[in-house]
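User: I'm preparing a small set of examples for a lab meeting where we compare how different chains pack in three dimensions. I only have the primary sequence for this one, and I'd like the structure in token form so I can line it up with the others. Please keep the answer compact; I'll paste it straight into my notes.
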Amino acid sequence: QVQLVESGGGLVQPGGSLRLSCVANGSIFSINVMGWYRQGPGKTRELVATITSAGNTNYANSVKGRFTISRDNAKNTVFLQMNSVKPEDTADYFCNAGVVAKSGRWSTVWGQGTLVTVSS
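Assistant: Understood. Below is the structure token output for the 120-residue chain.
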């Protein structure tokens, strides 16, 4: 079984920075796309950014130029560097990964989420 564990959330002031991390644990053969999604208060879950194993990235328009997604393939870890944060970035941030287990089974895995609050 594969699990994703996020960390790095917390309270940050507007204009500040925060770095989220997500590590995949378990019987992993390979991971294709990894990404971050978020769900704000009263909102539906939305894409923030994704990154392939080759390093190709995709961002939501609302975070382009402010957030950077990166990954360490050797450590099955994905990061989200959040700069110039705004109050509207307040949300639960969820890690997601497309994983091929050693059994050969492919699945989409979600983390439990980490809360980011942007407030003065």
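A couple of notes for your slides: The chain has a mean pLDDT of 97. The radius of gyration is 14 Å.

User: Perfect, thanks.
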